[in-house]
Write a structure and sequence with these properties.
The structure holds 2 protein chains of 2 kinds.
Chain A (H helix, E strand, L loop, with lengths): L16 E12 L2 E12 L3 E5 L6 H8 L7 E6 L2 E2 L4 H10 E4 L11 H11 L5 H14 L15 H13 L5 E5 L7 H16 L3 E5 L3 H7 L2 E6 L2 E6 L1 H6 L4 H10 L3
Parallel strand pairs in A: 3-8, 3-9, 6-7, 7-8
Antiparallel strand pairs in A: 1-2, 1-4, 4-5, 9-10
Helix pairs in contact in A: 3-4, 3-5, 4-5, 5-6
Chain B lengths: L20 H9 L4 H27 L8 H5 L7 H13 L8 H16 L8 H19 L15 H27 L4 H15 L3 H15 L8 H26 L3 H9 L4 H16 L1 H14 L11 H9 L8 H30 L6
Helix pairs in contact in B: 4-7, 4-14, 4-15, 5-6, 5-7, 7-8, 7-10, 7-14, 8-10, 9-10, 10-12, 10-13, 11-12, 13-15, 14-15
Classes of the chains: A alpha/beta, B mainly alpha.
Chain lengths: 259, 368
């Protein structure tokens, strides 16, 4: 049983939907991971998805840029529906930035090369221009001095900030974060969250899978709670944390907020 | 809280001295236990038994200069280097017309130069491909002639070291791209491509090189129309390159499998196409991981060129054997085989040293 609250404060009125999931299902073999997800993300919205592990939240956002294929229903990203059409998929992917739990920087390229690779080859931007843009974003994530190092020479927090800069270099219309701080040492989580907060303040559309409830409270417009492949509850953060409606949400929150 | 307590001062100590002088080293490394002492003594005994006789044979009692076979056969005579003084040109260049020997000599020089130039990483990319293509064109021009006033020399008269190098290097240049394609195809999501690649690799790996060479030299002409003939050397070369590519493909596949999924996903999420992802992200990392097995393949392949002897191509091994069959100089096997062994070893040693340097160089500052 799912309780879906419709009282969501749209940030920009009349703006087109950035992401639309309509009755979306996914199976891994026989296992039904996502069971009829309906979800709409408007431009400028900042969404945090939380839930116990195995609830399908990572799979959900990985479907949005087709790292996972859905088998039923519709996914429409910025007006483009995701189907088997490879051109369409590449187009959507170049508009959607993604930050991974394990950073996934390219270890054989320098930080700067990591950031310029896709702009040069996908967007066909001249190298010089791409490098200038990359330096701008590396300054925004506060590591311009590391531009010529290799990822292996950086700390986890620095690597994750490079990964964010790499995505931003493609000037994405929406950013997906898949547990961006889960692989970090505690003292590095803040530097990554700070970057994400400043992105949010600039109006970037974001969907973020995270266990950082503090981040959800201060940054999100809407918190979505998932369990066993379905959206159980969604609400603005104040209502969500202070007044959870479903028993499953209450149980989950009492687990994660104890600390 | 008692104020007498003092935290230990943060001092950095030097590592303990491991050994004291040469005597200390001897004791630590050669005589540190009974089994080790026995092995050391055994090794000393072997060296004493082996080195002086070899030294006598190769240097002190050796027959050098332009002497006849009879001088070499005198009792007490050591190595017959005169045999090499007489035959080295034949062993190196085979049946190539003697007055034109400068051409194959230049070819050897050119190939060795290209191999050394290839070590410069700044040239990697299209520059290197261009160097090799022009270089190989010059090699064939020099060997075959028939242009620029060079007399034409049919490839049945090519032989010795230049031929060995040509077969090997062309095999690498042809085989490497095929191997990369096979390795990628074997992991393709298209079932037909995957099946073809697996089938080819398993088929080629399942038969000995000698039978591939036989097929290339005997069977292929049977299937061709009567008036179409393909040069024997070319047929052997193609068979050889294909054989080699199947093995190399498996080495490269090992590298591809070692690349974490996250690398593919990161490339996908940036919107890179399959070929961009493969050429910019996956292959550079995968090939770097398999330098050691690839060079192992190259070395094995270089030495396997000696198997073309079986279809009557005059490589270095064959010229040495032929030189030995001269009735005037029968029986100087040691000298002949030592000579070509040194040549083979030189090239293989160069490759193995280069691969070690390359691995260290490429991994600098790039630990995951």
């Amino acid at each position: 049983m799912s309780i879906v609250t419709e009282s969501i404060a749209g940030s920009a009125e009349g703006s087109a939907d950035m992401v639309q999931l309509i009755d979306m299902h996914k199976w891994y073999g026989e296992f039904h991971v996502l069971k009829g997800i309906n979800m709409t993300v408007s431009r400028g919205e900042r969404i945090v998805i939380c839930g116990p592990s195995g609830s399908g939240k990572s799979t959900l956002i990985r479907c949005i840029n087709r790292l996972e294929e859905h088998q039923q229903g519709q996914i429409i990203v910025d007006g483009n529906e995701l189907t088997g059409n490879l051109k369409q998929i590449d187009k959507v992917r170049s508009e959607v930035g993604m930050v991974f739990q394990a950073f996934n920087l390219f270890p054989h390229l320098t930080v700067l090369e990591n950031c310029t690779l896709a702009p040069i080859w996908v967007r066909k931007i001249p190298r010089r221009e791409a490098e200038a843009t990359a330096m701008k974003y590396l300054e925004r994530v506060r590591i311009p001095d590391q531009a010529h190092k290799y990822p292996g020479q950086l700390s986890g927090g620095q690597q994750q900030r490079v990964a964010i800069a790499r995505s931003l270099c493609m000037t994405p219309r929406i950013m997906l974060f898949d547990e961006p701080t889960s692989a970090l040492d505690p003292e590095m989580i803040k530097e990554v969250l700070d970057v994400m907060v400043s992105l949010a303040q600039e109006g970037m559309t974001m969907i973020c899978v995270t266990h950082e409830m503090g981040f959800a409270r201060t940054v999100a417009n809407r918190v979505i709670f998932m369990d066993r492949g379905e959206i159980v509850e969604q609400n603005n953060p104040i209502e969500f944390f202070n007044n959870p409606r479903s028993e499953r949400t209450k149980a989950f929150l009492s687990q994660v907020l104890q600390h | 809280m008692p104020s007498e307590f003092q935290a230990p001062a943060n001092v950095t100590l030097r590592p303990p001295v491991a050994s004291l002088g040469p005597l200390g080293w001897l004791r630590a490394n050669l005589f540190n236990s009974w089994p080790n002492t026995i092995l050391t003594l055994l090794a000393v005994w072997l060296i004493v038994r082996v080195v002086p006789p070899v030294f006598n044979w190769a240097i002190l009692d050796a027959v050098t200069g332009q002497q006849s076979a009879a001088a070499c056969r005198a009792p007490g005579a050591g190595a017959c280097w005169s045999f090499l003084s007489e035959k080295w040109r034949f062993i190196l260049f085979g049946l190539y017309p003697p007055d034109q020997h400068w051409r194959p000599a230049l070819v050897v020089l050119l190939i060795v130069t290209m191999l050394i130039v290839s070590c410069d990483r700044r040239l990697w990319g299209w520059a290197l491909a261009a160097i090799w293509l022009t270089g190989l064109a010059v090699v064939f021009l020099l060997m075959a002639g028939g242009i620029f006033g060079l007399p034409y020399v049919d490839d049945t008269r090519w032989g010795g070291l230049p031929l060995t190098l040509i077969i090997s290097v062309v095999g690498m240049v042809l085989g490497f791209p095929i191997a990369v394609a096979l390795a990628l195809g074997r992991r393709s999501e298209l079932p037909v491509v995957r099946a073809l690649c697996i089938g080819f690799i398993e088929l080629v790996r399942g038969v000995p090189l000698i039978s591939v060479l036989f097929m290339a030299s005997v069977m292929i002409p049977l299937f061709l129309p009567r008036d179409v003939t393909i040069d024997k050397l070319l047929r052997a070369e193609v068979g050889y390159a294909l054989f080699f590519s199947a093995y190399l493909a498996e080495a490269i596949r090992g590298g591809l499998q070692a690349i974490p999924r996250g690398q593919y996903e990161a490339a996908d999420s940036l919107g890179l196409t399959y070929w961009q992802k493969t050429s910019k992200i996956i292959l550079p990392q995968a090939l770097k991981l398999v330098i050691a097995p690839m060079v192992n393949n190259f070395i094995g392949q270089f030495k396997d060129t000696s198997l073309v002897i079986i279809i009557g191509i005059f490589d270095l091994m064959m010229t040495a054997k032929t030189a030995l069959s001269d009735p005037a100089w029968l029986g100087f096997y040691k000298e002949a085989y030592l000579f070509i062994a040194v040549i083979y070893f030189g090239f293989c040693f160069f490759m193995s040293r280069y691969s070690l340097w390359l691995e260290r160089h490429l991994h600098r500052g790039q630990r995951r």
